[in-house]
């Protein structure tokens, strides 16, 4: 579904069910804290700021549901010499259009969905795009066999019957050989990772194959270091000139408005009961 179609659906749903009156738009949550009588009532004190009038108000609620997503903060890696680079460095989160990159040399770091989207979109305007990845990825088109969505193919009973008979690596090899390699030779373009297709989520993109074939996008290993006018990739001795570096390196979680200690992270995972509730607090957050 396209963005404008999703927006239209949500807007029409909210209007038809008369729920817009319960929304406060242009409002930033500044803090969520346990109320003074929390132990007896389980209530929460919420402070918000109107981004137009800058008015700050505080109210008390019986429960709070945080729905901003758990990977909502761009993750920006650092490389040696990065502060010397005279070009532009940004996260794909800030990529709002590709026209500013007309006739530019662009390096995209990361081969997730956002990385491939950034590489494909900017390559239509940029002079050259380099796609930097440490491990590669299995890339799958949205359209699978017989014109059906690929995920429809993956939930067919035949696949699960194969998994009952054959080990996962064997089924993965069949999928790679009979489907992925038919799309384009992933080894030829240095995108194939060292794990089989069912070990990690594959990446969806319909156009990266043609971009690699035409040379509009060139695969590169991880960045070794930055210099003033470009980067040096691992294993290279020559400088690759770059005007822009787009970090498509994922997101991390952060809830700056929550009282400290409410949400805890253990072994790189957020500790929530049923992925929703902090286990040490009343079941109202």
From TrEMBL:
SUPFAM superfamilies per UniProt: FAD/NAD(P)-binding domain
Keywords of this entry: Endoplasmic reticulum, FAD, Flavoprotein, Membrane, Monooxygenase, NADP, Oxidoreductase, Transmembrane, Transmembrane helix
Membrane-protein topology: Single-pass membrane protein
Keyword Oxidoreductase assigned: yes
Known EC number: 1.-.-.-
Domain of life according to the entry: Eukaryota
Compartments (UniProt record): Endoplasmic reticulum membrane
Catalytic activity reported: N,N-dimethylaniline + NADPH + O2 + H(+) = N,N-dimethylaniline N-oxide + NADP(+) + H2O; hypotaurine + NADPH + O2 + H(+) = taurine + NADP(+) + H2O; trimethylamine + NADPH + O2 = trimethylamine N-oxide + NADP(+) + H2O; hypotaurine + NADH + O2 + H(+) = taurine + NAD(+) + H2O
Cofactor: FAD
GO cellular component: endoplasmic reticulum membrane
GO MF: flavin adenine dinucleotide binding; N,N-dimethylaniline monooxygenase activity; NADP binding; trimethylamine monooxygenase activity
Top-level EC class: oxidoreductase
Similarity field: Belongs to the FMO family.
Its biological purpose: Broad spectrum monooxygenase that catalyzes the oxygenation of a wide variety of nitrogen- and sulfur-containing compounds including xenobiotics. Catalyzes the S-oxygenation of hypotaurine to produce taurine, an organic osmolyte involved in cell volume regulation as well as a variety of cytoprotective and developmental processes.
Protein name, UniProt field: Flavin-containing monooxygenase
Native source organism of the sequence: Trichonephila clavata
The organism's taxonomic lineage, starting at the top: Eukaryota, Metazoa, Ecdysozoa, Arthropoda, Chelicerata
Gene assigned in the entry: FMO2
